[in-house]
Input
Amino acid sequence: MALPPWLRAARAPLTIALIAAVLIWNLIFDLFLGQAERQYLWRKAVYALGEGHDVTLDGTIADGVRDGAWAASGWTLMVIASILLAAWLGYRAGRRAS
Output
């Protein structure tokens, strides 16, 4: 059974979007977790100097996970939408040209 032309044309952009989504989400999420770890160490050092209040690793990482998941999801959605929009516009322009 042959695939419709629009589905054949969409396979490559969908594959690229899926791969980009996984990579971008993991990258952004990892950046936020790394920042949460650094913030924890910084706040612990400030507390040790008597300049701030005590923090827990669980609380700091929980904030990093929450913020990282939101940021990673937002950036991933924006990139996927851009890839799919470019593919759709290219497909439309190609159909008009032929």
